[in-house]
Write a structure and sequence with these properties.
Helices cover about 70% and strands about 0% of the residues. The protein is an all-alpha fold.
Length: about 90
């Protein structure tokens, strides 16, 4: 496996919030997380990465990114639910 991709996959495991593509404000190019966005974009693009990543490697990255997005979405739903329930319960007392 490409060493750069190995690093990205490990970073996703340890810092998934840096790969939030749903709710994170898109950082400007001076922000380090903007670099992750660009690197993931390059890796997922067959046209850009065909010479150094296999289809299986791209599929693994895509799966991890999708898993992170799913977890982030679920957390957002739960935060919203708790906020609504918190407001409802505080209004009843």
């Amino acid at each position: 496996m490409n060493k750069g991709l190995e690093i990205i996959l490990k970073r996703i495991d340890t810092h998934p919030e840096e790969f939030d593509q749903l709710f994170r404000q898109k950082p400007h190019s001076a922000n380090p997380t903007a670099s992750w966005d660009k690197l993931v974009e390059i890796a997922l693009s067959v046209q850009c990465s065909h010479s150094f990543l296999t289809e299986d490697e791209r599929a693994e990255l895509k799966s991890k990114i999708q898993s992170v997005q799913g977890d982030i979405f679920t957390k957002a739903v739960m935060r919203t639910l708790f906020a609504i329930n918190g407001d409802d319960s505080s209004g009843d007392t």
